């Protein structure tokens, strides 16, 4: 549309085109500009590579923390499933009383399973596993109590501790113990790590935004003359800023890919160390890698950071460059 | 086509670049704008292309008051005006074709239609054989003609030129002027700022003379008196 000359046919709109044709051309245009921006990155590899590296490294830290939280949660949930209450019986409990207690516990709807460990059996196990070996043969009396292992139906820590309170009241029970203290601590640590990850991620995202913004700002300043000429021949700000926005998107994309690669290498490297630790605990723990959905989120975040970082720079700088011309 | 009404432009610091300038350029008219450097020629052209805004007074193009044009509309106004610059203002790392095509690309042209128009514009300035060259491999006169091709490629009704023959020898200057005359003959209004007095004398067109920001002469060439 011409502002000065009513009816002057200007631009491609002057040529009659079908809606479909225009729709196709819109996308063709955008893809072409995206590829042009990619080419520009290719032409100035040094600065773009540095920016991509900063992006990749910055995003690696929050992603690593996220994976750590995810794996810790997996550990704590697998332990949670095995939460057991140990009932240490009074020393003078006899056979019939034990049978009575077992029957009572099995009748309790909260209880999934009851396992009785005789004190002589316990001593044998302890002798075998503790490594004290022969030392026990010098003890005349068996100092261990009978133990009953109760598996609660509901394995959540709240329900289990409620059950613990009721079982403590049983007549023959000397001591009842639910080892969820360390579980709660682990949960607390996991949630702490998650909070830290969030904070770190937030800070690093701001850093990435600024880094991308600065890179784009330098690119704009490098092209100041070109932008001036474009303004002189009637380019709108949005037309001029589009390639820079695409550049931001590409930087974000490559930064995300780099993060993924660094993460993979890191996991591969840590795998052996972690295997060593888990072997000691005889656990069947396997390190969960990044899932496809997580990779998708990572790329989405990286690309948005690139886009908004460059938008920041573009908004500030392109309108400041005024055509001085003539 | 182009009308100035009591236009004054003063810059911060009190320097008055234009002082109550009024004139009217008819549709299809060709005129020269002359005066010493610093007389206000560039300022006058900047007011037309909305690089600057007048302090007081009004500028009209085709009856449209330019003070009513807001910032966002400025690019669309510039698309209606073909501008030629003394220092060419070409994109040095793009080919001649890309340079001339720039206004069309901005307006959304592509493909055959664009190529056709670019070739037509380059043909008019006699540079069709240099389509693939980079600007710095061309001579000054050729670069200037690329600038002209770019200015006319989207067929604007108004053409502004700032010292288009600035650094060219007389023969080349004459060539360039012939190109402008050819456009004028097909109905384009042309305003050329130049201090090349001998050229102006030969061309015999209406001449607007500025001195210290004031329009001291508006008419056919008659200078020499106080030069």
Structure description:
The complex is a heterodimer of chains A (326) and B (227). Chain A folds into 2 domains: 33-78 and 190-317, no CATH class; 84-179, Alpha-Beta Plaits (2-Layer Sandwich). Chain A has a 4-stranded antiparallel sheet. Chain A contains 9 helices and 4 strands; from the N terminus they run ααβαβαβαβαααα. Chain A is 67% helix and 7% strand. The radius of gyration of chain A is 34 Å and the shape is elongated. With 227 residues, chain B is of the alpha/beta class. Chain B has one domain: P-loop containing nucleotide triphosphate hydrolases (Rossmann fold). Helices cover 33% and strands 26% of the residues of chain B. Chain B has 7 helices and 10 strands. In chain B, the strands form 2 sheets. Chain B has a 6-stranded mixed sheet with strand order 6-7-8-3-9-10, sandwiched between helices. A 4-stranded antiparallel sheet of chain B has the order 2-1-4-5, with helices on one face. Chain B is globular, with a radius of gyration of 17 Å. The two termini of chain B are 30 Å apart. Mean pLDDT of chain B is 87; it is low at 222-227. Chain A binds chain B through residues 1-5, 8, 10-13, 15, 25, 28-29, 226, 228-237, 239, 322-326, and chain B through 42, 45-46, 49, 51, 61-62, 64, 69, 72-73, 75-80, 83, 85-86, 89-91, 102-103, 106-110, 113, 150, 154, 157, 162.
């Amino acid at each position: 549309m011409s502002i000065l000359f009513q009816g002057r046919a200007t631009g491609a709109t002057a040529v009659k085109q079908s809606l479909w044709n225009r729709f196709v051309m819109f996308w063709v245009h955008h893809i072409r500009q995206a590829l042009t921006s990619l080419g520009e990155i290719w032409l100035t590899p040094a600065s773009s590579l540095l920016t991509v590296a900063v992006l990749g490294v910055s995003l690696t830290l929050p992603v690593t923390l996220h994976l750590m939280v995810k794996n810790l949660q997996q550990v704590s949930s697998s332990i949670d499933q095995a939460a057991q209450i140990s009932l240490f019986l009074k020393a003078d409990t006899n056979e019939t009383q034990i049978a009575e207690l077992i029957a009572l516990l099995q009748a309790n709807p909260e209880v999934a399973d009851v396992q009785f460990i005789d004190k002589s059996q316990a001593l044998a196990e302890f002798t075998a596993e503790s490594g004290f070996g022969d030392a026990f043969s010098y003890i005349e009396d068996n100092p261990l109590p009978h133990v009953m292992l109760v598996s609660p139906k509901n394995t959540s820590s709240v329900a289990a501790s409620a059950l613990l309170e009721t079982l403590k009241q049983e007549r023959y029970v000397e001591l009842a113990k639910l080892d969820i203290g360390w579980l709660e601590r682990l949960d607390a640590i996991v949630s702490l790590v998650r909070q830290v990850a969030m904070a770190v991620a937030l800070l690093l995202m701001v850093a990435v935004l600024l880094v991308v913004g600065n890179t784009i700002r330098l690119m704009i300043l490098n092209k100041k003359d070109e932008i001036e000429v474009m303004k002189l021949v009637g380019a709108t700000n949005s037309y001029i800023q589009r390639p820079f926005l695409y550049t931001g998107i590409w930087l974000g994309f490559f930064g995300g890919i780099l993060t993924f690669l660094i993460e993979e290498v890191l996991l591969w490297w840590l795998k052996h160390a972690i295997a060593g630790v888990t072997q000691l605990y005889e656990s069947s723990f396997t390190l969960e890698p990044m899932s496809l959905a997580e990779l998708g989120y990572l790329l989405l975040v990286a690309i948005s950071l690139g886009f908004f970082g460059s938008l920041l720079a573009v908004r500030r700088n392109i309108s400041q460059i005024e055509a001085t011309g003539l | 086509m182009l009308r100035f009404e009591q236009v004054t432009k003063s810059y911060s610091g009190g320097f008055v670049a234009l002082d109550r300038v009024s004139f009217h350029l008819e549709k299809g008219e060709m005129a020269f704008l002359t005066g010493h450097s610093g007389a206000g020629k560039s300022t006058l052209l900047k007011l037309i292309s909305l690089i600057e805004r007048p302090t007081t007074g009004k500028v009209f193009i085709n009856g449209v008051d330019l003070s009513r044009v807001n910032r966002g509309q400025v690019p669309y106004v510039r698309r209606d005006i073909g501008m030629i610059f003394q220092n060419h203002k070409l994109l040095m790392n793009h080919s001649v074709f890309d340079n001339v095509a720039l206004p069309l690309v901005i307006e959304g042209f592509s493909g055959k239609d664009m190529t056709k128009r670019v070739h037509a514009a380059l043909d008019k300035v006699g540079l069709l054989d240099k389509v693939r060259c980079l600007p710095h491999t061309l001579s000054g006169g050729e670069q200037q003609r690329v600038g002209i091709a770019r200015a006319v490629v989207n067929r604007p009704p108004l053409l502004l030129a700032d010292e288009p023959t600035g650094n060219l020898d007389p023969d080349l200057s004459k060539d360039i002027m012939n190109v402008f005359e050819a456009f004028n003959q097909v109905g384009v209004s042309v305003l050329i700022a130049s201090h090349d007095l001998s050229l102006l004398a030969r061309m015999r067109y209406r001449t607007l003379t500025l001195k210290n920001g004031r329009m001291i002469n508006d008419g056919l060439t008659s200078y020499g008196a106080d030069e």
